[in-house]
């Protein structure tokens, strides 16, 4: 039976990794080679209540980072947000390890009163799975690590009224660069991504061809993402980059097109058509249809 270990503060994280006390209570940059864990994390369920960005070396540990032949090899970034559960399956760091990885961790309280607090949820990669990690080029890694150096310098010197804003600004800039680099990764993977778009569309068609909608209700992003071995956020971002529409928008478009065909090619009532598409209540069907077409199902049927 696995045991749960919860990390709630930067200080607690430092202590569990055998590091000296942090220089700032809400943010820290630490090097993997310096880890001397005081706890054997293997097999533990770690509930991490910090934001964390970790650079892993390719092939580090027993986790799969999703690297393919078209990805860069100068390091892999993995992102976690507060409340996520991590199960460590790699080897514990050895003495004098040559690992050049690092971790940037910051507590939600660091950004709570800043503009970044409102923006943080826009960085959807914090909710990607490990195999959807970001693979960096040498130049990209240098860009990220230059910002890390600025963050470290800010919290290592005497803090003043500007320190907090400068630390947060550099974290936000780092995240914006990660967004750019993820866009680059989606672009360089475009050939295989097109295949996933096709598979996504086939899954949607099969969902209705096999009457799953009547049994399970409307298809949702999580179900389709699991079928493709993606997280919901990654699938949505992939589709957005390739087609300009999110996964939810694709589902709604598919359902509305099915509805239009049923309205024009059958005499079934609006309610029956709604139920056949997976809507639990007919009014929900009518509401979605009107929001997407500008008219109710009955109005559409009369006009066509």
Structure, described:
With 304 residues, the chain is of the alpha+beta class. It folds into two domains: 4-188, Jelly Rolls (Sandwich); 215-303, Arc Repressor Mutant, subunit A. It has 13 helices and eight strands. The strands form two sheets. The chain has a five-stranded antiparallel sheet. The radius of gyration is 24 Å and the shape is elongated.
Mean pLDDT across the residues is: 90
Total number of domains: 2
Strand content: 5-15%
CATH fold-level name of the largest domain:
Jelly Rolls
Q: Do you know the CATH architecture of the largest domain?
A: Sandwich
Overall spatial form:
elongated
Question: Which key phrases capture this entry?
Answer:
304 residues; alpha+beta; Arc Repressor Mutant, subunit A; five-stranded antiparallel beta sheet; three-stranded mixed beta sheet
């Amino acid at each position: 039976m696995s045991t749960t270990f919860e990390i709630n503060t930067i200080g607690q994280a430092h202590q569990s990794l055998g590091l000296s006390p942090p220089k700032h209570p809400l943010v820290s940059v630490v090097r993997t080679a310096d880890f001397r864990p005081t706890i054997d994390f293997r097999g533990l369920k770690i509930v991490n209540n910090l934001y964390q960005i970790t650079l892993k070396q390719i092939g580090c540990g027993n986790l799969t980072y999703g690297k393919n032949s078209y990805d860069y090899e100068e390091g892999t970034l993995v992102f976690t947000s507060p409340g996520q559960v991590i199960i460590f399956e790699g080897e514990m760091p050895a003495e004098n390890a040559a690992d050049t990885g690092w971790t940037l961790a910051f507590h939600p309280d660091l950004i709570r009163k800043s503009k970044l607090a409102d923006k943080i949820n826009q960085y959807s990669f914090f909710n990607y799975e490990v195999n959807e990690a970001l693979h960096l080029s040498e130049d990209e890694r240098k860009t990220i690590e230059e910002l890390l150096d600025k963050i470290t310098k800010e919290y290592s010197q005497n803090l003043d009224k500007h320190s907090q804003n400068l630390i947060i600004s550099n974290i936000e800039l780092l995240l914006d660069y990660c967004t750019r680099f993820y866009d680059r990764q989606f672009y360089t993977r475009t050939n295989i991504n097109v295949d996933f778009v096709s598979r996504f569309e086939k899954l949607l068609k099969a969902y209705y061809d096999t009457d799953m909608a009547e049994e399970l209700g409307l298809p949702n992003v999580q179900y389709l993402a699991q079928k493709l071995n993606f997280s919901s956020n990654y699938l949505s971002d992939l589709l957005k980059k390739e087609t300009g529409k999110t996964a939810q928008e694709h589902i709604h478009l598919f359902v509305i097109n099915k509805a239009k065909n049923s309205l024009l090619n059958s005499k079934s009532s609006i309610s029956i058509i709604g139920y056949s598409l997976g809507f639990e209540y007919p009014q929900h069907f009518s509401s979605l249809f009107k929001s997407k077409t500008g008219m109710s199902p009955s109005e559409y049927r009369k006009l066509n």
